[in-house]
Amino acid sequence: MKIRTLSLALLLSMGGLFYSCAENSPADNAADQVEYETENALSNMGAEVREESDEFERGFREARTNVDNRMNELETEMESASAEARAEMEEEYAELEGYRDDLDRRMDRVGANWEAGWSDFEGDVEQGWMDFKRESDELMTNIERSLDPEGDLD
């Protein structure tokens, strides 16, 4: 919704520029004000995304550590496991590898270069960020369930 408002404000700003190019005219002043408000809104949105991005990065790092620990445990357990138990452990290990790779890709997107990552959200930036958040939340839930199948850890 913010993006639509910003787009409209930018469109009005551009229209005002073409309407009157006279310095200090009402249209020029209105265009300057819209431009200022647009820049301010973009700055505020960037701050919100940066904060959420930092939270995701912390969560991803913690989840990655938990996944790595479980993978190490599985490697140790597989050495002395029966063939049947080993097969089950290998399936879990493969699932954890997929989660680890997904976490790595997401950490790249929200890491220190998050500003460059804006281009990853093609089209509507706000919708792209919302999709990323939803997918990330689902990933974190799946990892939590995978690491605690009995649901007894908090």
UniProtKB/TrEMBL annotation:
Keyword vocabulary terms for this entry: Coiled coil, Signal
Residue ranges that the Swiss-Prot or TrEMBL entry lists as coiled coil: 64-106
Domain of life: Bacteria
Signal peptide (from-to): 1-22
SUPFAM superfamilies: Apolipoprotein (SSF47162)
PROSITE patterns with a match to the protein in the record: PROKAR_LIPOPROTEIN
UniProt name for this protein: Uncharacterized protein
Organism for this UniProt entry: Neolewinella xylanilytica
Lineage: Bacteria, Pseudomonadati, Bacteroidota, Saprospiria, Saprospirales
